[in-house]
Specification:
The complex is a heterodimer of chains A (about 325) and B (about 300). With about 325 residues, chain A is mainly α. Chain A has a single domain, classed as MetI-like fold. Chain A has 15 helices and no strands. In chain A, helix 3 packs across helix 15, helix 5 runs parallel beside helix 10 and helix 14 packs antiparallel against helix 15. Chain A starts with a helix and ends in a 12-residue tail after the last helix. Chain B is mostly helical and about 300 residues long. Chain B has a single domain, classed as MetI-like (MetI-like fold). In chain B, about 75% of the residues lie in helices and about 0% in strands. Chain B has 17 helices and no strands. Chain B is globular, with a radius of gyration of 26 Å. The two termini of chain B are about 40 Å apart. The interface between A and B is large, with 99 and 97 residues.
Chain lengths: ~325, ~300
């Protein structure tokens, strides 16, 4: 015992770590400082407004005047508002049709680009351009293409003898709906195609070769090799696609502002009109809040419907 | 089936081409006419549709006014007398250069703030692995899914309360809510690929976490930083609803908002300058994109794959 004490006193004893030293190397303490900037932004400008939005929807707040709690009055009001229900219908139509076509065309384009092509890299770069250009600016080009008198599409069709008078793209109820849906698809396809292409490139070509030797047709190769291996990435891409289509605002605002007679009014544009233009913050907030359940449903469906099979990512099945 | 295989096997040419070039995969199995119909034709149609609006935008911006509206005398698909008048008007008779500057200022400011915050957060989540890091990572992904169009109403009251209304700082401080979740997620992916043995060595040599981040991790993650920077910059440039709601003075507006609000009047001859404005507003992004295509694509797909 005494021996040991002697020995240890003979060595240079390392300085006792102070509380400050231990704190400096404590990961949890360091992490607080590393997380602080991001957390500050996300709490002040994301989480707090998200909560505030839900609260505002239960008040009669107007621009320049804080509201008082009025219970579910805003929602009762919306429930009887036919324009609100029209906007819900339009939003669902817009989202479902546009997302479905974006998926189909995007997947088709990805499969085409995955073939052995000359100038492959340039082609891919060019395909993505509609996604790079700000939506508002390309929407303005579409606005001009859809012009009621000077539309180039009408002109071409007239000169081909397919129609006798100009198409009123944005003035007619259903024409306007299809026109905005087309513009949305045009913008969304490159995103879907390029991300799916990235997924396709991870599929080993030897799988296709093996299947071909076994006598699989092109469809069978797609159905039993490409599709299952691509499912996880499809789930993520489509979640984003549905989400951003559902909450679209810019395209509609530039092309139609919700018209004609609210035929292209989406929930986002309606909430802008009610809250910012008419000044009824409470009512606008109620419309925004009403979008949340739809968004959650879309996320849950694509997540649990498509991403459950873990073996596709190289993990064991659960 | 066996017949088909036998045929293929007996055809020496097929075998030759197959062994001669591995890079073309199985495409040698298709004949050229077949590829024309199933591959080149649909591809060209899709490309034509994807690019036509830009051609139309560019053509309209250099057409003289009389040709714009007269589609019977002149073929509208081409112009014989290109003019730069619309661009001239844009630069010298409107505040377009100012709007361009505003957009640039806001985009760069918001991007730099977001990248700094994201680097720190991503490093902490991936490498410091504090208690609850996995949960925070998940929460950040969820934040990415919160769309601006359900936030702009409460945010407008918040911006007003903080006294930021109608100032570029309203945008510089709110855009990071869109950018931070995305770039944190992207950088987490990059940081994970850096071998942690490097950091262990540095720790043993007495480097602090801050030194490790600045001297080891960041230099290795430069491709990721460029990707995040470009993608964030594009998102800022593209943003519309916040800029529309939080700004009211013409001189403070960004390009997308200014084009929609200031150019749209009853003038029938506005199309030329409108298209010139749209083209001039898109070009900076397209040029940036042309230089960094690979980074851009890896940013887009990287965030999805993680």
């Amino acid at each position: 015992m005494a021996d040991i004490a002697l020995k240890s006193s003979g060595r240079t004893v390392p300085r006792e770590a102070t509380a400050w030293d231990r704190l400096k190397t404590n990961n949890n303490w360091l992490s607080i400082w590393f997380m602080l900037p991001a957390a500050a932004f996300l709490i002040l400008f994301l989480a707090y407004p998200l909560g505030l939005g839900v609260w505002l929807s239960f008040t009669d707040a107007k621009i320049g005047r804080g509201g008082e709690f009025v219970g579910i009055e805003n929602y009762e009001w919306l429930w009887d508002d036919s324009i609100f229900w029209l906007a819900v219908f339009n939003t669902l139509l817009y989202t479902i049709v546009a997302s479905a076509i974006k998926f189909a065309v995007g997947l088709y384009l990805a499969l085409l680009l995955n073939e052995n092509l000359p100038f492959k890299a340039i082609l891919r770069a060019v395909v993505l351009i509609p996604f790079i250009v700000p939506t508002v600016l390309s929407a303005i080009a579409f606005w001009w293409i859809y012009d009621s008198q000077f539309s180039i599409v009408s002109w071409t069709l007239r000169h081909l003898g397919l129609i006798s008078s100009n198409i009123d793209f944005l003035g007619d109820v259903w024409n306007a709906r299809w026109s905005v849906i087309f513009a949305n698809i045009w913008r969304g396809v490159p995103f879907v195609a390029i991300t799916l292409l990235a997924g396709l490139q991870t599929v080993s070509p030897s799988l296709y070769e093996a299947a071909t030797i076994d006598g699989a047709t092109a469809w069978q190769r797609f159905r039993y090799i490409t599709y299952p291996l691509l499912t996880p990435i499809i789930a993520v891409v489509m979640t984003f696609s549905v989400l951003f289509t559902f909450t679209d605002f810019q395209l509609i605002w530039v092309l139609t502002r919700g018209g004609p007679v609210n035929a292209t009014q989406l929930m986002a544009t309606l909430s802008y009109q009610r809250a910012i233009i008419a000044g009824q913050l409470g009512e606008g907030a109620a419309i925004s809040t009403a979008m949340i359940p739809f968004l959650l449903a879309a996320i849950l469906i694509s997540w649990f419907g498509l991403q459950r099979r873990k073996w596709q990512q190289g993990e064991s099945n659960d | 089936m066996t017949d088909a295989l036998a045929n293929k096997a007996s055809d020496p040419r097929a075998i030759l081409t197959a062994t001669a070039d591995h890079s073309e995969g199985m495409s040698y199995l298709q004949t050229l006419p077949r590829r024309l119909v199933t591959l080149y034709l649909p591809l060209s149609i899709i490309l034509l549709i994807l690019l036509f609006p830009f051609y139309w935008m560019a053509l309209t911006s250099i057409k003289p006014d009389d040709q714009l509206l007269d589609m019977d005398r002149v073929n509208p698909f081409w112009t014989t007398a290109p003019t730069l008048k619309h661009f001239y008007n844009l630069l010298f008779q409107t505040s377009y250069p100012l709007w361009l500057w505003n957009t640039m200022f806001v985009a760069i400011g918001a991007t730099i703030l977001s990248i700094i915050a994201s680097v720190l957060a991503a490093y902490a989540i991936v490498r410091l692995r504090y208690r609850g890091a996995a949960w925070v990572g998940g929460a950040i992904f969820l934040a990415y899914l919160v769309p601006p169009s359900i936030l702009f109403i409460p945010l407008s009251t918040v911006v007003f309360q903080y006294g930021l209304f109608d100032s570029p700082f309203a945008l510089i401080l709110t855009y990071p809510t869109i950018l931070i979740p995305f770039s944190t997620w992207l950088l987490m992916g990059y940081f994970k690929t850096i071998p942690f043995e490097l950091e262990e060595c540095a720790l043993i040599d007495g480097a602090s976490r801050w030194q490790i981040l600045m001297r080891i991790v960041l230099p290795l993650a430069i491709p990721g930083l460029i990707s995040a920077f470009i993608f964030c910059f594009t998102l800022c440039w593209n943003e519309f609803i916040y800029a529309l709601t939080f700004l009211s003075t013409t001189a403070h507006k960004t390009v997308p908002v200014a084009i929609v609000n200031e150019f749209v009047d009853g003038d029938i001859y506005r199309w030329g300058s409108l298209m010139a404005g749209a083209l001039a507003g898109s070009l900076p992004l397209v040029v940036l994109y042309a230089f960094f295509v690979e980074h851009y694509v890896s940013a887009m797909t990287g965030a999805v794959k993680e």
